[in-house]
Amino acid sequence: MVSPVHPVDDQAAWGDEVTAGNVFGPVLVSPTLCDRLDALAERTGVQAGWLTSWSKEMRDAIQPFPGRSWPTIADEATWYASGPRWWKLTALEAWLDEHPDVTAVCWLDDRLKNPARAASVRRRLASRRVDGLVAAPDIQAGLTPEDLTRIEEWVGARFPDPA
User: Fold this and answer.
1) 76-94 pLDDT, tens per residue?
2) Is the pLDDT of residue 69 over 70?
3) Is 25 helix (H, G, I), strand (E, B) or coil?
4) Greatest CA span in the chain, whole angstroms?
5) Which of 62-76, 78-92, 131-145 has the lowest mean pLDDT?
6) Residue 152: Cβ-neighbour burial (10 angstroms; 0-12, 13-18, 19+)
7) Other beta carbons less than 10 A from residue 23's beta carbon
8) Residue from 142, 154, 158 nearest 44 by CA
9) CA 124 to CA 93: how far, in whole Å?
10) What whole-number distance in Å separates Cα of residue 122 and Cα of residue 112?
11) What is the DSSP letter of 72?
12) How far from each other are the two terminal CA atoms of the chain, in whole angstroms?
């Protein structure tokens, strides 16, 4: 779980969540989640990155937190005034323009709960021939073990570990 709010009825999904900092309220983080996300980012062929309204300073103030070494694809301050389209999609497409070798994108964002927005992202990725997994974690729960298993399976099918 990476969530700036407490889960409903204090039922945490991972069972090992700790209060890791305070951003808009206490931030609950699962060390297990951090370890699994960081392990995914270490797989051959995988490049993890941040496309978030949380600043680097906000992320750095939280411990534990996944992705300490991940680059920032874009930040809100730079891209927010990018026009009528959602700033994150505009920023991702600019990043994809700079990385034409990218064939798959897994995008996790609670703002993708909006079905029209998620469908737009899927269409834009498909128009670039980029295989996309678009997922919207519940804002109250953050990424759950089930969410991460789905992501690990998706990544594993596209970027198998050399054995």
Assistant:
1) 666 666 667 788 898 899 9
2) yes
3) coil
4) 46
5) 78-92
6) middle
7) 14
8) 158
9) 8
10) 11
11) E
12) 30
User: Buried (b) or exposed (e) across 95-104, using 16+ Cβ within 10 A?
Assistant: bbeeeeeeeb
Q: What is the pTM of this model?
A: 0.86
Cβ-proximal residues to 82 (8 Å cutoff; 6+ apart), any chain: 90, 91
Collapsing DSSP states into helix, strand and coil, what is residue 124?
helix
Amino acid sitting at position 94: A
Q: What are residue 148's phi and psi, to 5 degrees?
A: -70, -35
Mean pLDDT of the chain: 85
Residue 8 confidence (pLDDT) above 70: no
3-state secondary structure of 71: coil
Altogether, the residues listed in the chain come to a count of: 163
Cα 102 to the chain's mean position, in Å?
17
Q: What single DSSP character describes residue 99?
A: -
Predicted confidence (pLDDT) at residue 1 exceeds the cutoff of 50: no
Indicate the burial class of 38 (C-beta count within 10 angstroms; 0-12, 13-18, 19 or more).
middle
If you average pLDDT over residues 106-127, what whole number do you get? 93
